[in-house]
Structures are given as C-alpha cells and as structure tokens.
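Methods — Computational structure assignment.
A single polypeptide chain was analysed. Its primary sequence is given first, followed by the predicted tertiary structure written as structure tokens.
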Amino acid sequence: MNNSYDEIVANSNATETNPSGDLDANKSCGPDAEHASSASISESAADGDVYEAGFDVQTHGGGQLETVAGFEYLGTMIEGIGTEDDFALPEASETISSAGRVEFNDYQESVCGVDDRVQIDPVANVPWRMIAQLIITLPNGMRVRGTGWFISPRTLMTAGHCVFSHQNGGWAQSIEVIPAMNGRKRPFGSATSTNFKSVKGWTENKETSHDYGCIILPETSRLGDKTGWFGYANLSDTSLESLLANNSGYPGDKSFGTQWYNAGRISKVTDKRLHYMIDTAPGQSGSPTWKCSASKNNMTGGGRSVIGIHNYGGCANKSTRINKAVFSNMTTWKQQGL
C-alpha cells in the first residue's frame, strides 16, 4: 500500500494549534482505580505493543469486558468464529428527517445472530461519557448521525466518512458533538466544529481500510476536560487474535440519542482491519472498539485502550485497526486538541 495513503489532509476551515502540557492518566478498568500523572507520551510493552495514555476520573468494570447490567457474557465468550459475509457501509447511512426519524440505506452495519445489545443508562459515567453522538451536516445540507470518542480535551476520533462523504460532496459543513447524550439529556452540553482531519487514503483513494478521521473542537470548547478521554494502542497480531473487545455507540435503529453496548471476540486480524462479531447498526460508524484490563500498569496497557475505529458492516463487523501509521496520526491530532 502506498505510504502516501496515510498522509494527513484537513478541510479548508481547519486551523492548527501546537499546545503543550501534561495530562493525568487513569489506566485501570477495576473498581479501585487510582489517579496517576504522566506526560502525553507513548509507552511500549511486550510483543511490540504500544500504548497512549488516556484520562478518566471514574471506572466502571473489570476484566476484559465492561460491567454492563443485562449483558449476556456467556454468548460473547463463544461467539465469533465462523463464516464472514462482507459488505460496505455507505458514508451517509442514516438521514435525520424533520420529524426526527431515521431513513436507512440498503447497506447497514450488522446485528450478527441474536441481538444482545444493551442500552447504557445512565451514560454520564466513564467510559460511556467519553463517547459522543454526532449530528453531521453534509455539503449538500443533508444531516446524518454518527459516533465519535475523545482522545484529548478537544479531539474526537470518528470514521472518515463522518467527516468526508464521497457520496455527498466531500468535507462536512459542520458537526455537532454531544457527549453522553441520553435521549433529550445533554449532561455535558455540546459543541459544534468545522475543523476536521482525515488521510489521503480515504479522501482521495476511497480506501475503506483508511476510513478514519477526527474532529477538533474550538479552543473554547474543551468538553473532554469534563468527560475524560480514551487511551489507544497499537497492538501486535498475537495480542489482538481472539481478544474480547468492547464497543458502544449511537445506533440509528434505536431511540435517537441513546447509547448501546455490545462485546465480542475479534475473529480476524489483518494489517489494517479488525473483524468481530459485535452487534452494531447504522449510526455507530466512528465508535470505539476497545480492550479493557484490570491492570494499572501503563506499560502493559492497563485500563481501557481503543484498538479500532468502527466503520463497516457485514458479519463480522469491522474497524480500521490502530496500526503504527494510524497511531502516529492520532497522536498528532491529539496534540492539536490539548
């Protein structure tokens, strides 16, 4: 693959900043997590795994899966090995009509087998509040839904097709970010951005493996200081194979503004993609796929580390893998939002 595919591109409204400073890192998924302070640097562990610290002020579970009331864990342990049917998810998968209804395209992200998704309520706890409902205004005026998640006070990761739509004219006009939205509730408020990034592999070459991007909020809108943000990791194939992973986002087949969780094993690992039997639906494009560990050791990725950016359907569903190139771009974007 051409290395230029990983070159960063920005929309015309983007402005660059070069802030500096430290952040607090709380890396444990366990109930007795402690705060620690660390510079915003990457850390290497065994098997070539590389982690970037996140920041949260509360934890909500333990082990490799989040603790979510009503979620059936047994099926998750055994599901995920089998035949995969692939199809592409189009950029604008759900339209928000004037009545607030959702109109679906022919291709959708998928519920694989039994639909065992669980609604998150309340959403104002970690890690759920670090995930945001996106309301995207496309160049042609169409409004669509998506999901994003914080990696710094002003930077959110999402799917490339949430910031740049090949089907609808290119860069989004604007994106409203609503962290921890729960129906009509907006516990942390909202902010609107016109500053977006992606990579040439998506904006110029339409490569689905490069379908990722970011939103940088205005300097006066540091929502991540209130919600906290995820760490992320570039893991080896060995560390990823059959890993139990978590995903949560804002699916369009459920009530508007409600967040839903599912989990499952990674069934296939490639250089640029992760495949898994985690149930999703249109609207969850851009949501985080993360590993969870009870360890507090940053060097071994203790706590929550996002490993993929969810963006495509089929059974299995798929994420862009956070490999070395994606990790590097994310770290650049993270710094621009500190």
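Note: Residues 175 and 304 are 26 Å apart (CA to CA).
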